[in-house]
Write a structure and sequence with these properties.
Elements: E1 2-10, H1 15-32, E2 36-43, E3 50-57, H2 60-68, H3 70-79, E4 83-91
Antiparallel strand pairs: 1-3, 1-4, 2-3
Helix pairs in contact: 1-3
């Protein structure tokens, strides 16, 4: 399992345009990708222009398939004009349910 954490900075007054795109992307990823196990969309308190994603994939290959999916490519094109910065962190090992050290 890998975790992908993405932090977006959204352009001023564009959050209302971005959030529906982001929610659609999350729903499509969970529905269409067997390797996508979790896709949380987090927003800081109001007012905010920061969106944080927490995504879990079964493997790096599953995440790479996500990046090649039609729904991701469409989201990326639609969201790009609304985003002023994007940071992606990939964590290659995730321990859940008390599995630390196993």
């Amino acid at each position: 399992m890998i975790a992908v954490c993405v932090t977006f900075t959204i352009a001023a007054d564009k959050m209302a345009d971005f959030i529906p795109l982001m929610h659609r992307q999350a729903a499509q990823s969970l529905a269409k990708e067997d390797g996508c196990k979790q896709f949380d969309v987090c927003v800081q308190g109001e007012p905010s222009n920061t969106v944080f994603l927490y995504e879990l994939y079964t493997s790096r290959a599953a995440f790479d398939q996500h990046l090649q999916s039609d729904h991701f490519k469409a989201f990326d094109v639609e969201a790009a004009p609304l985003v002023t910065a994007k940071k992606v962190d990939i964590f290659g090992q995730v321990f859940t349910d008390g599995q630390a050290g196993k």
